[in-house]
Structure formats: C-alpha cells, structure tokens
C-alpha cells in the first residue's frame, strides 16, 4: 500500500556478522538478491519464519557508507516524494531513479536529521 512502511534495511561493512546476529536473535533467513548482484551490489534479502516473502535487506557497504538501520516507505513516485520532502525542509542524501536492477529509491533526512528511505516498486515488464 502506498505511503506505508514496507521495507527496512540494515547497512553494514560486515554483512556476515549482521546475518549471524539477526539470524540467531530473531530466526531470520538471508538470501542473495540476484537482481542487485547483476548491478554489482551485495544485497541480501531478509525473510521471517512463516512469512510469504522478504521484508527487508542487508546492504553490504564495503565501508563506502556509514552503517545504518532505516525503514522505507513505498511511494507512488520516488522523485515526487523527494521534491516534497525538500519543500518541507528535509534533505535528500541519495537518489537512484530509473533503476534497471530494482526499485527507484532514495534516502532522505527529515527535519530532525533522521534518515529514512522511500521507494517505488519496479513496473512490470511491458507496463
């Protein structure tokens, strides 16, 4: 559903450590995101026991960005959400639009400096 929290991400330079920690703590499972891998990104999908599909991911930063844990909101239009956030006093810190390997997404800091994400699911082929 649009404008709801639909994903979370844990970014770390130690993805194996994160998998071990969260896997043992919560019983989460992890699987490589093949589409992200095709684009050169190490991203691992997080699944919950009994869940139908993944609900989050572990992003292996390789030390290129600080570690973080954020929630992400599904939006109808990532670019429009970024524009609106900036108009409201937020700051877009990263934006990837027309992503050939997955959803359009962005990281935004709210007016208090808190980081969160927004994303628009990829359109089905031919849509």
UniProtKB/TrEMBL annotation:
Taxonomic classification: Bacteria, Bacillati, Actinomycetota, Actinomycetes, Streptosporangiales
GO molecular function: lyase activity
Pfam families according to UniProt: Glyoxalase
Signal sequence, start to end: none
SUPFAM superfamilies: Glyoxalase/Bleomycin resistance protein/Dihydroxybiphenyl dioxygenase
Domain VOC: 4-121
UniProt xrefs under InterPro entries: Anthracycline_SecMetBiosynth (IPR052164), Glyas_Bleomycin-R_OHBP_Dase (IPR029068), Glyas_Fos-R_dOase_dom (IPR004360), VOC_core (IPR037523)
Name assigned to this protein: Putative enzyme related to lactoylglutathione lyase
Stored PROSITE patterns: VOC
Source organism superkingdom: Bacteria
Keywords: Lyase
């Amino acid at each position: 559903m649009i404008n709801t929290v639909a994903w979370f991400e844990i970014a770390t330079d130690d993805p194996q450590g994160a998998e071990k920690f969260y896997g043992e703590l919560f019983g989460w499972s992890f699987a490589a995101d093949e589409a992200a891998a095709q684009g050169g990104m190490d991203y691992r999908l997080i699944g919950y026991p009994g869940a139908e599909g993944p609900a989050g991911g572990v992003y292996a930063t390789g030390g290129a960005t600080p570690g973080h844990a954020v929630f992400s909101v599904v939006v109808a239009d990532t670019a429009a959400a970024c524009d609106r956030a900036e108009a409201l006093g937020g700051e877009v810190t990263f934006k990837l639009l027309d992503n050939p390997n997955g959803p359009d997404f962005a990281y935004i800091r709210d007016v208090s400096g808190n980081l969160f994400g927004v994303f628009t699911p990829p359109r089905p082929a031919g849509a």
